[in-house]
Amino acid sequence: MKARHKRLALILGGMGLLTAAILLVLSAFQENLVFFHSPSDILQGQATPERMLRIGGIVEEGSVQRQADGLTVQFAVTDTASSIPVVYQGSLPDLFREGKGVVAQGRLDEAGLFHASQVLAKHDENYMPPEAADALQQAQKSMLTVVQP
């Protein structure tokens, strides 16, 4: 084999390894990518069931139900226009309350029930994740345009 052919084989082999490494990194990135959706977005079909996502909004008043096992909690997250039922197994943050902001990460099942693997509560009166604040504002605007003739 000539030196020229060896060099070409080495270059092609290196490019193949580089391509494989890039594909592995992109695949891992795609699997760990989590999108934020409001309850209205989910009900409009913008979220894919069984895909990891985050929902945010307000914990609906009167919706929190604790199961007998003490760890399973069901509640609804609303953006004032729509609400999504959420089930979570684990201990909730201390700041978790009805009528307060929350972001939940998990998966939506085919029946429309959101199975949360993580629940984050708003940490003070002035803060809300920008995505949740935008979703609430959009939902309120859409309700105003529907109500006004």
UniProtKB/TrEMBL annotation:
Gene3D superfamilies: Nucleic acid-binding proteins. It is a single-pass type II membrane protein. Residues 1-7 are cytoplasmic. GO terms for biological process: cytochrome complex assembly; protein-heme linkage. Pfam families: CcmE. Keywords: Cell membrane, Cytochrome c-type biogenesis, Heme, Iron, Membrane, Metal-binding, Signal-anchor, Transmembrane, Transmembrane helix. GO terms for molecular function: heme binding; metal ion binding. Residues 29-149 are extracellular. Its main location: membrane. SUPFAM superfamilies: Heme chaperone CcmE. It comes from the Bacteria. It is found in: Cell inner membrane; Cell membrane. GO terms for cellular component: plasma membrane. Belongs to the CcmE/CycJ family. HAMAP family: CcmE. Heme chaperone required for the biogenesis of c-type cytochromes. Transiently binds heme delivered by CcmC and transfers the heme to apo-cytochromes in a process facilitated by CcmF and CcmH. This is Cytochrome c-type biogenesis protein CcmE.
